[in-house]
């Protein structure tokens, strides 16, 4: 495996490849902001953001040392690695709320997630091993509702009874813009879904070799996130649009607005512990829910999946 | 009435230069003409031109026999490997719209006439060279064509089979009076079967000359030993020899 | 004796290969998530055997239907097209376009057409699209590979287009059509799996879900076990078709 | 005159088809996100032309390299294999397994082997895997299609295995190898796109991204514009290969 | 010394029953034997058995000529369509390890000997039937084989070319004394070229009889008109006729 053979780049900084879980978008804004404002460079890091996609497996990249750090989309991803004893640890959680939503047609009488029972539900493969577990546990949904989701909302629009998964800033916006339909949107996190979103994970090899770099990355990213939500984002947005030409300022502004409105980054423990914070209590809550559903054995050492040691000091 | 004719035709194949001609040949209704000439002079090409399978580079080709009225025996058997001997022979009949059962009956009869009773079910790959050629001949004869073009039909056959088939073709001619042009390397065969023997020169073949064969058709017993037969054969051989010498 | 060697040697070779793989995994301490060892794959395959068998059967049966559909449609289209040069020139680019269309891209649309309630229909349609082209192209190439002198004979005997087609071109195309089916069978199988990835929900039981779920759960050996089953099915289908090809060609050649 | 009709008629037929599609979309008021009208697709294609051209070029060049790689490797493997019946029986199931392996499933692993910094390598490898089989199978079938009497002559003249291979089997296989390439070219193209879907993430500029991103944003017309480009490239490549095939076969047959 | 022999061989092809035999034939070193018989009797099959291309269903085949020492002319030309005439003829030389340039020079010379100077660059598809057959013959002669098996090599040729080539083959024999077995339908050719003529019966062919031809080899001028020649030819024809009658 072509692991980082030379960990110093020509600039003398530590090379750090960070793999995201999707094409560059507003939800990656904090990292791009840190890059654009030089927060990483300032701390001796030469960060390269590698865009992901629907079939890019960050755990695989990380556990084979193909990248130093990567993004974890939700707690399932993290605990799956613990289950398989992958040498990877989660070091920070930048989204206190996962941005997964469920979307329904506005006029079919779905007022709460519970009303979706019996409706065909478009879920991606990954979600079927993720949020579906929680949905079944909490709402008693059944597998015969499952339909495949290919990241296209066409099938949803074709059939009014269908509900589907989505990403807070993406699908609802797309549906409204292209089909002129304002769908009913339900943020799972606001209905008790206990997972974090957009975490930073690091391979054990990298942690062992450059713990300071990990700490520096977490710190710089936290600053980047705060800044992306509140300061001027032109430079970061430019980087995003360079990486992903399909992105528009419009879309980015929309995502930023939503992240602020829903308190994705700064709500909950973050108010006290700062951006990026994780707590043992929150991890335990998620583990109890998932293992209660039989996804994980009760005796899984889930604490091996994360570490709190790189978290930034709580703001005074 | 002229059934088919070549007038000053020349054939060129790409950069290999002229292969045949200028050559003229006219076939009158109901006559039997033999075409002889050295290997590579253009006999097969002339046949293909008359059948309309190819066009000449220069010159004109006319043909009065319509589609489905011409039969051809290629120099190689050219059978469909996936069809039995019977089905190969029945093919032209079925193409002309005859019911399969009747066509196959007629095909079997035709195979019997060329001495292949017993090999009806065999595939081309299971036949000897001479047998395949006879299947090809049976296929050409079975449709009772108006114009019959035969390219060395008996070359792969032994003398006895050869003579039997020659008499067979003459008998068939007696019945339906088709126009027959056949290529042969056997001068005696040419003289025995044809009313007229046309000889070509080597190289890009042109007319070396022609001889009319006198005598009744079909040939009476012992025709091959008559003085006239010997003399004509001699003359044709001379035509070929002088044509070759001139080239 | 010779025969036994011929039978055993390939198996030995394969065993050697697998042994080397296993040894490499153990000696070089290759992490199972980089490349799982054959023994680990085998263990998973045995452990999951009933579920894998069920899934494999689902995929295989859909692939089979897709192959039959592709074979029929491409055969008929090739026929229609070869009756008219104009039609051929109009249809060929369309068919190529269909071949180069990634089924992942049209899965959502096919899903809509097939109806969200019938994912297996969508899977079969998509797999048939993948398997379509080699048969079509083979049939077209084969129909043009007829002996030119036989073709001339047909013209001479006044055969109609239709007669030339059924009695000359179709039989002549058989070797190429068979070759097309050998390629298409594998494509139908892998097409069915990709189509399952793309268009089949939990409602359709197939290998794709086994693979995908294992990959999401980071159980690489389990995913490889499913791939192994897929490979065995593919090899078996290919071997069967190869046998059929030999038989049919022997009949075709008449010896 | 005849020629002009032959040239124009297919275009007319295509135009008719497209016209029908357009009419259907307008008259039946089909939503653009179910099936976009040709005019809408065209508009998008024009609007996005520079970006599309860039993406198309990326995909095409990778597909081309993949085809060349697949052609070389499958050719060499077919050669090696046809020197030994034992080797052939051992390798064939492996190759079929490779053919039926969905590249989506092995994309993560190939990605690591190729190195994340080189997504285009992963894409090319995966596309080559997809394009590999038809050429390999065609070469193998073709090498066995040699004239049996010529083969007997070679034996009689004491030709070595290698001589029989290079001087009889390889030349004999040409028609089948060409057919294999015609199928493989399309597969390389669609394989490149699927590989981009699967392995490229955002780092590689290609049509897959255009398609996926557009579908995700429900801009179906935009996605179809990309598919249109893909189809045009596929048809062009196929036409070129068809031309090459006719030339080469004419040379091969000696007329 | 016996170069090759068939002893009581029979050949059966699947359910079509016995095709040839029981038949025996033994070729002594340096002799020229002609094999004649009606179409389909098994002459080509006998040749294939002697060449080792097929095995007999029953009986034994022996051969002293090793690999690369035997040459064969099939009844059909059997040329590689992708090679020029020269390359087709050079093929056996190159297979035996000769350098390409020299092999092609010898091939061109061999083509000249069979009257194909000028057609060296042509592909098989561009040759007439007789020309292709002559290329095939040149390919068989060019290696100076110990055992030469010829299946109707001159059948597609005109009389003059035929005689020239017959004399050519005899001249070659004079030089290197190969053992030659050739199949022909032309009784006079058989008697002219061979020291011994073997005749087969029709159907599943068995031996009809054989005749030794007396007289010097190569034949003196005018040999065809000698009394001995005529008598032997007559005898062979009778053998064939009685063989046929008996069947
Ligand atoms: N397709 C072709 N391309 C090039 N040259 C050709 C082609 N077909 C025939 N020729 C040439 O045309 C000439 C005449 O060929 P043709 O077959 O008519 O001879 P032929 O008189 O029938 O000879 P044979 O008695 O040997 O059959 C020959 O020199 C041959 O090389
Ligand atoms: N592959 C085969 N399968 C079945 N029967 C065959 C096969 N090959 C030859 N035969 C049969 O064997 C017999 C002898 O064939 P062979 O080719 O030896 O005849 P031949 O004496 O050379 O005839 P010809 O003078 O016509 O070339 C024929 O009856 C033929 O039908
Ligand atoms: Mg000829
Ligand atoms: Mg024979």
SSE blueprint:
The complex is a heteropentamer, with one copy of chain A (316 residues), two copies of chain B (247 residues) and two copies of chain C (255 residues).
Chain A: E1 14-19, H1 29-36, H2 39-42, E2 45-50, H3 58-63, E3 69-72, H4 75-83, E4 88-95, E5 100-104, E6 121-123, H5 125-128, H6 131-139, E7 146-148, H7 154-158, E8 163-167, H8 171-179, E9 184-187, E10 197-203, H9 204-209, H10 211-230, H11 234-243, H12 249-261, H13 269-273, H14 280-292
Parallel strand pairs in A: 1-2, 1-3, 6-7, 6-8
Antiparallel strand pairs in A: 3-10, 4-10, 5-8, 5-9
Helix pairs in contact in A: 1-10, 1-11
Chain B: E1 2-12, E2 18-28, E3 32-36, H1 43-51, E4 58-63, E5 70-73, H2 85-95, H3 100-113, H4 129-141, E6 147-151, H5 159-176, E7 179-183, H6 187-193, E8 196-200, E9 207-212, H7 227-246
Chain C: H1 2-27, H2 38-47, H3 49-82, H4 85-100, H5 103-114, H6 119-143, H7 148-156, H8 161-199, H9 207-216, H10 220-253
Keywords (chains B, E): ATP-binding, Nucleotide-binding, Transport
InterPro entries (chains B, E): AAA+_ATPase (IPR003593), ABC_transporter-like_ATP-bd (IPR003439), ABC_transporter-like_CS (IPR017871), ABC_transporter_ATP-bind (IPR050166), P-loop_NTPase (IPR027417)
Protein name (chains B, E): NitT/TauT family transport system ATP-binding protein
Structure description:
Chains C, D: It comes from Caulobacter ginsengisoli. The complex is a heteropentamer, with one copy of chain A (316 residues), two copies of chain B (247 residues) and two copies of chain C (255 residues). With 316 residues, chain A is an alpha/beta fold. Chain A has helices spanning 29-36, 39-42, 58-63, 75-83, 125-128, 131-139, 154-158, 171-179, 204-209, 211-230, 234-243, 249-261, 269-273, 280-292, and strands at 14-19, 45-50, 69-72, 88-95, 100-104, 121-123, 146-148, 163-167, 184-187, 197-203. Chain A contains 14 helices and ten strands. The longest helix of chain A is centred in the C-terminal third of the chain and has 20 residues, at 211-230. Chain B is 37% helix and 23% strand. Chain B folds into two domains: 2-69 and 149-246, P-loop containing nucleotide triphosphate hydrolases (Rossmann fold), CATH 3.40.50.300; 80-144, no CATH class. By secondary structure, chain B is of the alpha/beta class. The mean pLDDT of chain B is 87. Chain B has seven helices and nine strands; from the N terminus they run βββαββαααβαβαββα. The model of chain C has no long low-confidence stretch (mean pLDDT 86). By secondary structure, chain C is mostly helical. Chain C is flat, with a radius of gyration of 22 Å. Chain C folds into two domains: 1-30; 35-254, MetI-like fold. Classes of the chains: A alpha/beta (316), B alpha/beta (247), C mainly alpha (255). At the C-D interface, α1, α4, α5, α6 and α8 of C face α1, α4, α5, α6 and α8 of D. The complex binds adenosine-5'-triphosphate (2 copies) and magnesium ion (MG) (2 copies).
């Amino acid at each position: 495996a072509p692991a980082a053979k030379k960990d110093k780049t020509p600039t003398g900084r530590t090379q750090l490849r960070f793999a995201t879980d999707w094409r560059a978008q507003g939800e990656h804004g904090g990292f791009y902001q840190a890059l654009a404002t030089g927060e990483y460079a300032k701390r001796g890091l030469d960060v390269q953001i590698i865009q992901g996609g629907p079939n890019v497996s960050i755990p695989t990249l990380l556990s084979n040392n193909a990248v130093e750090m990567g993004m974890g989309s939700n707690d399932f991803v993290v605990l799956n690695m613990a289950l398989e004893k992958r040498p990877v640890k989660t070091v920070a959680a930048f989204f206190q709320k996962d941005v997964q939503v469920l979307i329904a047609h506005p006029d079919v009488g779905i007022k709460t997630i519970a009303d979706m029972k019996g409706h065909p539900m478009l879920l991606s493969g990954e979600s079927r091993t993720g949020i579906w577990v929680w949905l079944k546990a909490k709402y008693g949904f059944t597998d015969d509702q499952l339909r495949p989701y290919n990241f296209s909302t066409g099938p949803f629009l074709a059939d009014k009874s269908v509900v589907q998964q989505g990403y807070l800033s993406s699908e609802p916006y797309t549906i409204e813009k292209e089909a002129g339909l304002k769908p009913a949107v339900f943020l799972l996190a606001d209905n008790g879904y206990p997972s974090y979103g957009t975490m930073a994970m690091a391979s054990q090899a990298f942690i062992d070799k450059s713990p300071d770099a990990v700490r520096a990355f977490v710190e710089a990213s936290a600053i980047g996130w705060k800044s992306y939500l509140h300061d001027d984002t032109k430079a970061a947005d430019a980087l995003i649009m360079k990486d992903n030409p399909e992105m528009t300022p419009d879309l980015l502004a929309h995502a930023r607005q939503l992240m602020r409105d829903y308190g994705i980054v700064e709500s909950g423990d973050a108010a006290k512990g700062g951006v990026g914070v994780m707590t043992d209590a929150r991890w335990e809550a998620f583990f109890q829910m998932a293992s209660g559903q039989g996804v994980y054995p009760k005796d899984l050492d889930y604490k091996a999946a994360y570490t709190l040691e790189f978290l930034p000091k709580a703001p005074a | 009435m002229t059934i088919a004719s070549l007038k000053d035709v020349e054939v060129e194949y790409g950069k290999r230069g002229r292969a045949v001609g200028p050559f003229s040949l006219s076939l009158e209704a109901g006559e039997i003409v033999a075409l002889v000439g050295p290997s590579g002079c253009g006999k097969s090409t002339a046949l293909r031109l008359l059948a309309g399978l190819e066009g000449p580079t220069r010159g004109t080709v006319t043909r009065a026999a319509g589609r489905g009225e011409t039969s051809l025996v290629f120099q190689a058997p050219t059978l469909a490997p996936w069809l039995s001997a019977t089905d190969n022979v029945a093919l032209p009949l079925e193409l002309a719209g005859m019911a399969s059962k009747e066509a196959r009956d007629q095909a079997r009869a035709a195979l019997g006439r060329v001495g292949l009773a017993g090999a009806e079910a065999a595939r081309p790959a299971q036949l000897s060279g001479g047998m395949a050629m006879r299947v090809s001949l049976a296929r050409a004869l079975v449709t009772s064509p108006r114009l019959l073009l035969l390219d060395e039909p008996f070359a792969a056959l032994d003398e006895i089979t050869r003579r039997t088939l020659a008499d067979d073709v003459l008998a068939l001619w007696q019945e339906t009076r088709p126009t027959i042009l056949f290529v042969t390397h056997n001068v005696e065969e040419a003289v025995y079967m044809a009313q007229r023997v046309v000889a070509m020169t080597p190289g890009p073949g042109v007319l070396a000359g022609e001889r009319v064969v006198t005598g009744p058709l079909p040939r009476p017993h012992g025709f091959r030993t008559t003085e006239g037969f010997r003399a004509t054969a001699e003359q044709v051989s001379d035509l070929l020899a002088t044509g070759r010498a001139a080239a | 004796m010779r025969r036994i060697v011929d039978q055993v040697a390939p198996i030995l070779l394969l065993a050697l290969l697998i042994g080397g793989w296993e040894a490499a995994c153990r000696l070089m301490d290759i992490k199972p998530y980089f490349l799982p060892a054959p023994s680990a794959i085998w263990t998973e395959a045995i452990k999951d055997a009933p579920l894998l068998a069920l899934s494999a059967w689902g995929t295989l049966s859909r692939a089979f239907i897709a192959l039959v559909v592709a074979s029929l449609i491409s055969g008929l289209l090739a026929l229609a097209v070869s009756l008219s040069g104009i039609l051929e020139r109009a249809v060929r680019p369309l068919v190529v376009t269909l071949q180069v269309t990634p089924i992942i891209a049209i899965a959502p649309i096919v899903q809509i057409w097939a109806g969200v309630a019938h994912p297996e229909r969508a899977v079969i349609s998509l797999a048939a699209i993948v398997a379509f082209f080699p048969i079509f192209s083979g049939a077209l190439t084969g129909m043009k590979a007829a002996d030119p002198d036989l073709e001339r004979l047909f013209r001479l005997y006044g055969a109609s287009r239709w007669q030339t087609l059924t009695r000359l071109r179709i039989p002549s195309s058989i070797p190429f059509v068979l070759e097309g089916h050998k390629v298409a069978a594998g494509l139908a199988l892998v097409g069915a799996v990709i189509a399952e990835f793309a268009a089949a929900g939990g409602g359709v039981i197939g290998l794709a879900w086994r693979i995908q779920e294992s990959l999401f759960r980071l159980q690489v050996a389990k995913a490889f076990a499913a791939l192994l089953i897929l490979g065995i099915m593919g090899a078996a289908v290919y071997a069967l078709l190869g046998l059929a090809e030999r038989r049919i060609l022997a009949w075709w050649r008449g010896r």
